[in-house]
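In response to reviewer comment 3 from the previous cycle, which asked for concrete evidence that the modeling workflow produces usable outputs, we include below a single protein chain processed end to end. The sequence was submitted unchanged, and the resulting structure tokens are shown without manual editing.
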Amino acid sequence: MQKTRLKNANDKWNKYKEQTVFGTKSTYNSFDPIFVKNNETILEFHLKKCIFYDIFKAHEEIHLSPILCNYDNIFG
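The workflow returned the following structure tokens.
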């Protein structure tokens, strides 16, 4: 769906940023996202909390946390 919206946008970069900011705030709001850069060339956000870490910690399975954190490398 995002690909179609971008295809039809005049300003693809700003449309991408708009959609990504909206999606991050709605989908990842429990991760407490903070946008640190949002300009003409960079869109960067940090997730201040991790619900997966909290769940693993509550169940004494913290050693599983890095598995999910490694997914961040796909986007980094």
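The two ends are 23 Å apart (CA to CA). We consider this sufficient to address the reviewer's concern, and the full set will be provided in the supplementary archive.
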